[in-house]
Design goal:
disordered C terminus, single chain, Transcription Regulator spoIIAA, 6-stranded mixed β-sheet, two-stranded antiparallel sheet, disordered N terminus, mainly alpha, 610 residues
């Protein structure tokens, strides 16, 4: 976490000098050395403002996760302080998040009663496991794992998680309980509860009013703390009229006074095994969310983040939360903008927020006793509504139907199979889509189009001329096991469809960034088949690292160094010179006959990608 460079206004995207030693992994130490006094007042005031949303949101997410409300405050404090020490983002706010509550609830509630001490133990272990995975991934520089969830897949699972959490919170908003952890069971239970007249009208009135207040403030007064106002008014009404006693309204009740103590959560070996897969899902989702938020605010603030170090910091935050009776946390897309709008300059804002929360539960815990659960449900429902993005799904349908289908499949996987299996379904779909695309890449035969420099796809330029006896073939993808056979078939098909007898085929290999062993075998077979019918094989514009791979496979030597050309122009020049071909360009000039093999014709430049 470094102060902006004095010249950052000249080049806002210039990389900052990276700290050395301990400062690389503990940016909070550098903050202490570089902190500017003029930032202090803004950080302190922003931290106080941030507290107004940290408390109700933290409690609401804890309740939605099946844990006591106080656990949300413990997780919030621990994550804020830990990230202030180890995180690189200047104002990113960490804590419980709506994208994780469904996974936590689905993992914990089948093994323990809602709100029980054992549920807290299970959630703590889940956070520790996910945290250890994140720390290990960060140290191993696996930050690229966030790319496993493409935009369509993220849209699908976030919309499904939002639906799952909203359905899970509706019974609390209405004042009754529903047994069930999947969308179908919960939806059925809600319908039966309403039909069976189980609705607590007081709870519904309070929760519905909170919902309207929060949504109205978000719509017309975005900078006003609508969440705080709604929960505060609900708590005052419940306290004044003693509604918990007279109407059976469910409230938070007495919460422990004081700070959380370090404690190693205890679970059985069987439970540990059951939580392991859930921890993988939490690690993946939490970092995918945090990565997006972190990059967004880094771009706004014109500073740089490092995915691997952010993954490391996120892991430590989860480990610390698990050991202090909290649960899994991630970067918050709703609370970070609050800190930014309040004028936050550094992570001291988060530390201030953590201190304010700590003072509340140490000095004034009784203020939280009469907070109604229905109000906290309204907070969670509003947060989940912000996850819903129907317009982007509709846009996908209009511009790329294949991605729309992947998004819909992911949504149904999470909604029907369950949150945890659904996350793995999402990752599986994302990888499957990638493999399908890479296994069926675009390929083209190139020719010389009138009035255009370079060589162009003859399917897009039917008037393009092909050099007699020469096939210029472009393959727009890495060569690997899933497309190796197709590459060989397409190359042979290009030769078979050539207008004249083919003497040489040149692969325009600039798009080929990798060749695996399966593809190397396919190239070896292709070279053997072409050699059997006296057709030469050559490559143009192949990258150096890919040539090195061919050398390792023994193919570079087999094909011959003289058959690797820096550009298509040089390849054409060499072919025309070697085979004494009469080749006339569009302007009627003879090209390269008897010319020395020293370079391309004046107008023969690198291949166009059209």
């Amino acid at each position: 976490m470094t102060a902006p460079s004095q010249n950052s206004h000249l080049n806002p995207f210039k990389r900052e000098a990276q700290p050395h030693g301990l400062g690389r992994w503990v940016p909070g130490l550098k903050l202490l050395r570089t902190y500017k006094r003029r930032w202090l007042l803004r950080d302190l005031s922003a931290g106080a403002v941030l507290t107004t949303i940290l408390v109700p949101v933290g409690m609401g997410y804890a309740e939605a996760s099946g844990l006591p409300a106080i656990c949300g405050l413990y997780a919030t404090m621990t994550a804020l302080v830990t990230y202030a020490i180890f995180g690189r983002s200047r104002i990113l706010v960490l804590g419980p998040d709506s994208a994780l509550v469904a996974i936590i609830a689905a993992s914990v509630l089948p093994l323990a009663a809602r709100g029980s001490a054992h549920a807290v133990e299970l959630a703590g272990v889940l956070a520790i496991l996910a945290g250890v995975m994140c720390v290990a991934a960060g140290l191993l520089r696996l930050g690229f794992i966030t790319d496993l969830l493409s935009k369509p897949i993220r849209l699908g699972y976030l919309n499904a998680i939002a639906l799952t959490v909203i359905l899970g919170q509706l019974p609390t908003l209405l004042g009754f309980k529903v047994k069930g952890l999947d969308v179908v069971t919960e939806a059925s239970g809600i319908v039966k509860g309403i039909a069976g007249n189980q609705v607590n009208h007081t709870a519904f009135a309070i929760g519905g009013t909170c919902l309207l207040i929060i949504l109205a403030c978000k719509r017309w007064l975005p900078k006003f703390p609508g969440v705080l106002l709604a929960v505060f008014l609900a708590t005052v009404v419940v306290s004044l009229f003693n509604l918990a006693h007279h109407t059976g309204l469910s409230v938070v009740g007495e919460i422990p006074r004081g700070l959380p103590a370090w404690r190693v959560p205890e679970v059985s070996e069987k439970e540990l095994n059951l939580l392991f897969h859930s921890a993988i899902a939490i690690a993946l989702v939490s970092f995918a969310d945090m990565s997006v938020v972190s990059r967004t605010f880094a771009l706004r603030g014109r500073y740089e983040t490092d995915d691997n170090k952010e993954l490391f910091a996120l892991g430590l935050c989860n480990v610390a939360s698990g050991f202090f009776q909290g649960f899994s946390v991630t970067g918050s897309a709703s609370r970070t903008p609050v800190a930014e709008a309040a004028g936050a300059k550094t992570q001291l804002t988060s530390v201030t927020g953590a201190i304010c929360v700590a003072l509340l539960i140490v000095i004034f815990p009784s203020l939280l006793m009469n907070v109604p659960h229905t109000a906290l449900s309204a907070v969670v429902i509003c947060a989940c509504l912000s996850l819903v993005d129907i317009s982007s799904v509709i846009e996908l349908y209009g511009v790329r139907k294949a991605e729309f289908v992947a998004c819909l499949a992911c949504f149904l996987g999470v909604a029907v199979a369950g949150v945890i299996p659904g996350i793995f379904i999402a990752v599986g779909i994302s990888l499957l889509v990638f493999i399908i695309r890479a296994s069926r890449p675009y390929s083209a035969v190139l020719g010389r189009a009138k009035g255009l420099k370079g060589y162009h796809d003859i399917s897009r330029h039917p008037e393009a001329k092909q050099i007699p006896g020469l096939v210029l073939f472009r393959w727009d993808a890495p060569l690997f096991f899933a497309n190796a056979r197709l590459f060989r078939e397409c190359a042979l098909e290009a030769i078979a469809n050539a207008p004249t007898a083919v003497k040489r085929i040149v692969i325009e290999a600039e798009p080929v960034t990798d060749i695996d062993s399966t593809a190397a075998d396919a190239l070896r077979e292709l070279e053997h088949d072409l050699n059997a019918v006296s057709i030469e094989l050559g490559f143009a514009q192949m990258k150096g690292p890919v040539k090195d791979q061919l050398k390792n496979y023994g193919l570079f030597q087999k094909i011959g160094e003289e058959n690797f050309f820096p550009t298509l122009g040089v390849a054409v020049d060499a072919y025309v010179h070697t085979h004494q071909i009469e080749w006339h360009d569009w302007d009627g000039k003879k090209c390269c006959k008897h010319a020395p093999h020293s370079g391309p014709c004046p107008d023969e430049v690198m291949s166009d990608s059209l």
